[in-house]
């Protein structure tokens, strides 16, 4: 069941909308892990440091941003699922990215961390019952349910996968794009 309007901050609607109406967000999270790995695992170091415009994040920074956001959304979900009534603060994604040192790490190391975080996220949300999923709390100045946070995690990653494909990969030579590497030669 999709989160009802009013159970999340309006700006997160765009993420929730990226989870297809008929989709199970837990299945989407599992599928995204393989998809993200395919998109990033074969990048060269130079490609992993590409910025599609001045001041934009590199693919490594995008991945660490996804990790940071997933941990924060998961933490919020944990607190609210356990009926914690304390309001939780927001976070500044740009400050997090600027202080992540993502570009100093190997993509292999970042993907290992990504898979560990994703496995923990799927295990946590998969262990919640309907009552826990419908519990709510306040974060970043607004009310949000645990169910909405599950959809936000999945939609947020889908958003960044789309950005990688639309803004980063067109800057790479055609045979070097992650999507091209995983297509049969006749399709390339």
TrEMBL record:
SUPFAM superfamilies from the UniProt entry: DinB/YfiT-like putative metalloenzymes
Signal sequence annotation: none
InterPro entries tied to this protein: DinB-like, DinB/YfiT-like
Domain DinB-like per the UniProt entry, residue ranges: 28-163
Protein name per the record: DUF664 domain-containing protein
């Amino acid at each position: 069941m999709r989160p009802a309007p009013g159970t999340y901050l309006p700006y997160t609607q765009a993420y929730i909308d990226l989870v297809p109406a008929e989709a199970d967000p837990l299945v989407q999270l599992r599928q995204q892990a393989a998809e993200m790995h395919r998109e990033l695992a074969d990048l060269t170091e130079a490609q992993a440091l590409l910025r599609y415009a001045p001041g934009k994040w590199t693919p490594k920074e995008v991945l660490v941003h996804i990790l940071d956001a997933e941990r924060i959304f998961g933490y919020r979900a944990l607190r609210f699922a356990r009926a914690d009534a304390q309001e939780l603060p927001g976070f500044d994604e740009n400050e997090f990215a600027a202080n992540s040192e993502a570009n100093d790490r190997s993509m292999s190391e970042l993907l290992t961390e990504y898979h560990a975080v994703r496995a923990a996220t799927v295990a946590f949300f998969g262990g919640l019952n309907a009552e826990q999923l419908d519990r709510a709390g306040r974060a970043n100045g607004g009310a949000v349910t645990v169910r909405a946070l599950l959809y936000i995690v999945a939609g947020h990653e889908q958003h960044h996968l789309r950005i990688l494909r639309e803004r980063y990969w067109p800057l790479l030579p055609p045979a070097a794009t992650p999507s091209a590497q995983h297509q049969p030669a006749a399709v390339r």
